[in-house]
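Can't paste images in this forum, so I'm doing it all in text. The chain is below; anyone willing to post the predicted structure tokens underneath?
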Amino acid sequence: MDRIDRRILRELQQNGRLTNAELADRVGLTPSPCLRRVRQLEQDGVIRGYRALLDGAALGLGFQAFVTVVMAREDKPTVTEFERQVAALPEVVEAHRLFGDPDYLLRVAVADLAAYERFHTEVLCGLPGIAQVNSHLPLKLVRPDEGIPTERERP
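Text version of the structure:
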């Protein structure tokens, strides 16, 4: 991957709806080689797909919480079932298994605090193998997700 590939990735992360002609112009290529590079990045799995970024508040899901989960039991059947159930919950928009303590970090999106309280009490706390659930409520978004860095870090 060279600097042009990285520029392509940066541009597509900023606007995945660019036409190939617009993208080619922005990275200093003609359309044909630009399209070949994009297709190669897709084929190599560097570009996994394209999607729209949605505004949760506009959809009635403006309340987010970060939830840490500590497991009481971490045997394979318990962990497998916990992860299966978490993956099926539409309110959980992101879930990570962590090294150390806590065991999981979840990002939850719901309508409001009352909806979160119901979700926490009726759903989260009922999942298998949980010892502890902690909720962390963001005050403000300091830096939005702007994609994966495409430039190598400088030494």
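The chain has a mean pLDDT of 95. Strands lie at 63-71, 92-97, 104-110, 130-136.
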